[in-house]
DNA sequence: AGCACGCCGACT
DNA sequence: GTCGGCGTGCTC
């Protein structure tokens, strides 16, 4: 038997199957979707078995060393999905596989140094010999790290046969085992044994008495570690096991990141709007029919309850459901809603979990221990075997697009998987992406509308403040008079305020006031960002940092000033203007520690603060009854980014943030501060008018030839020498022009807004197309052509349907 | 991705 | 003459 194996190297030259002989004894074991260790060149690598066959066109086959898995880690469906992913995002097969598996499944490669000829090594290189004899298991990387000069001497010793290298391929995925102790015999027998113990065996008696006291003795078991923690003697337990009175057992342990008790919730009564939306979803589940629903519901319209009841239906059919939620709204509250309804049947997947925790959640899914997974983007690859439903909440969120390889969009993967499983997809949003809403308009998706909030609360009243006018009147503060007044009012009424500051597009850079010099990164074409805590200037692209200069590097004046507004600055301003207000600041700095996110929100929920000031992360999901005022400090900070989706993002953001106010008994108010108060994105958001925004934005996209009217493909290349990239970019543009149909347009090559990152110069080409069968083959050829030959350091990357155009 | 082969320049 | 730089090509 022969296995086709993809070697665990995400690079083009090895992106093809390699044939290996399956050794006798493993013939019945190896299956497609398993990981194996194979000799590759002169190294050993992990590989993915994709196919079994009887013959190979290669004469001299090597043999599989070992099999890493008891069961395939990739189901047949996921293997095919990997193939599709590689094709449609132009990535390698293993890059696709790795994206579908928890990080713990990645192999750890180590090289162990073994001394073959100690005497001869002693003679030829005594220093090396004595060094190696001092270390227990000398690893190549460790030795080279601490003594770089030894590297060449070891290579020489290897070529002389004095040393050899053992390639270790370590599987990081290890299920944590825990020893559980239980009674091996009946209660009476334990009592008898206890009575017969010698007077000296006090510790053993203690343990026996503990077990005898347990009411449910026959099913009672607990971890050995817990026993020891309660003060029982480990030796005594061991003795009792030897005597056959107690029994121990290795139990798979799932690290549960959610140990807290969860209160069970039950299905709520639905409003008529909700039932109308739910019915077609249930029908689709019932009939095992693939459909895509776009659930357009205003904030607070009860979309989650629809999700929950749909899932309930899926579980009742013994099928499984995937729920995708953007990373930033995957908060404990959010997860609790699902755990509350479905309890133990829910697995959670997000970046806050440790490697091991993620692996455990993944195992629960694969082993059928859970029926629901709630997770961020990558949870779309959950290895369920009978998918009954996929839900994507906040469908418009750009975080569903992975920015690095494989550059997939979770929405596309969801629809592809749902087709294979013949099940529905529900896309939910208060502000659907134009792409999805347009598809609903064309009846490709089924539109479900929820126009009312469940508790009949009106949407908050929204006021737009013109910051230019404030400026003219001499108010240079970040707070307009009206907003400040309203905050004061809430302080008096003991109500709460949420202030939202979007930092993107407003990063704090440093500029010289007398000559206008902006301090930029020497490696990247971008201004450095000021970090107050360390008084440093840092580059957000390459990590370069330098001391904050005292004087201007160009004109030597001492008028270096910070520009831009950060949350820290706003907090300082709040403290100055409203010293009595208690403020909680939530941004990357204050939420870095695990659990601090949750902690700050709980503090705010318990009304230990009057004002919650934060960035993106507070735009979603917050639901506090006492919040009656929401302030958007700079609504147009996104509007001027060089991005055709800038208006859409602005509209979405204002709408989401406004939704945080007045969700309960007290009515809500929203103040939007803007320098462009007459922009339709700002006005339509203030009026809660999605349709108006949609119409206007669609017209613009149509005129400019952007999605959803055209698809985009972005080809970016980088090289240390500007002339080399320029040349390559020209070649790429002409290949595209010569091979694509007339209906497609090729733009560029152009230098992007950030022209250099990490000492590499950048160029881009863009393709706009409606239907272009030649696109994938041509792009494939371009990739092949420019990286096959290792083309002197040119890097080329392709992003189909890019979300970020920088 | 590694790793070796191979072909050039600067040293004992 | 040898050591060592990194361009090129292969790995079932």
From TrEMBL:
Name under which the protein is recorded: Replication restart protein PriA
Keywords: ATP-binding, DNA replication, DNA-binding, Helicase, Hydrolase, Isomerase, Metal-binding, Nucleotide-binding, Primosome, Zinc
Binding site for Zn(2+) 2: 521, 524, 539, 542
Subunit relationships: Component of the replication restart primosome.
Residues covered by the Helicase C-terminal domain: 547-701
Gene name linked to the record: priA
Catalytic reactions on record: ATP + H2O = ADP + phosphate + H(+); Couples ATP hydrolysis with the unwinding of duplex DNA by translocating in the 3'-5' direction
Organism: Sporolactobacillus kofuensis
Top-level taxon of origin: Bacteria
A Pfam cross-reference name: PriA_C
